[in-house]
Amino acid sequence: MATHLTNLSARVTIALSAVAQKAIDLSTPEAKVSLKQVFDIAFGVGAAKADLIWWNRRPVAKDTTDDLDLAGSLTDGFGETLSFATIKVILVINRSDEAMAGAGVAGEDHPATDAKIQVGGAASAEFQGPFAATDDAIIVPAGGVFVIHSPTIDGGWTVNATTHDILGITNLDADDEALYDIVLVGESN
């Protein structure tokens, strides 16, 4: 299935700045590090291109898995059902964070839980994607972020409809609901 979009542009920016200091006699020298990587994604297929995007904020009941079918059940903001052939960007933000809920961060929804979520490892038809082996997964702690991007021409992770198309997002907390944001960027063929 081809895309229904007529244009798509995206930018993935990852940045870190840090300053380390050590007080010594009469001075406090410091060392700085600043790293930034920007990936621009244009409309189409091939290197640094994509023609599908899906995002959502989703709750996951305690001790359950939210199975995302990448080839035929996700509906975008235009009401169209998406079928990814490859995934190029996965971004997951675990909104479950007691500290952020208590801080009253403006415009943000952070449930007062400490729920960890697991990205990957669906029970069947698992999308292996960037993971080294079946059942591999990433644990995203409360308030944590997971992002991965594949920019090359043969990049992206293949989605095989009905056999390898389920991305599992599991709430590892046995007591509390989790809340997460997710963005998937990829190609339709």
Please describe what this structure looks like.
This protein is mainly β. The chain has a single domain, classed as Jelly Rolls. Helices cover 3% and strands 47% of the residues. The chain has one helix and 14 strands. The chain has one helix at 98-103, and strands at residues 10-21, 30-43, 49-50, 52-60, 65-69, 71-75, 81-83, 86-94, 117-119, 138-140, 145-149, 157-158, 166-171, 178-187. The strands form four sheets. Strands 4, 8, 11, 12 and 14 form a five-stranded antiparallel sheet that branches. A four-stranded antiparallel sheet has the order 5-13-9-10, with no helix packed on it. Strand 1 (10-21) and strand 2 (30-43) form a beta hairpin. The radius of gyration is 19 Å and the shape is globular. The mean pLDDT is 90.
- Count of DSSP strands: 14
Number of separate domains: 1
Shape: globular
Strand fraction band? over 45%
Helix content: under 10%
Q: If you consult CATH, what is the topology?
A: Jelly Rolls
CATH hierarchy: architecture = Sandwich
What sequence of helices (H) and strands (E) makes up the elements?
EEEEEEEEHEEEEEE
Number of helices: 1
Mean pLDDT: 90
Poorly predicted regions are: none
Quickly give the structural class: mainly beta
What is the CATH class name?
Mainly Beta
Query: Whole-Å distance between the termini?
Result: 7 Å
The biggest sheet amounts to: 5 strands, antiparallel
- Compute the CA-based radius of gyration: 19 Å
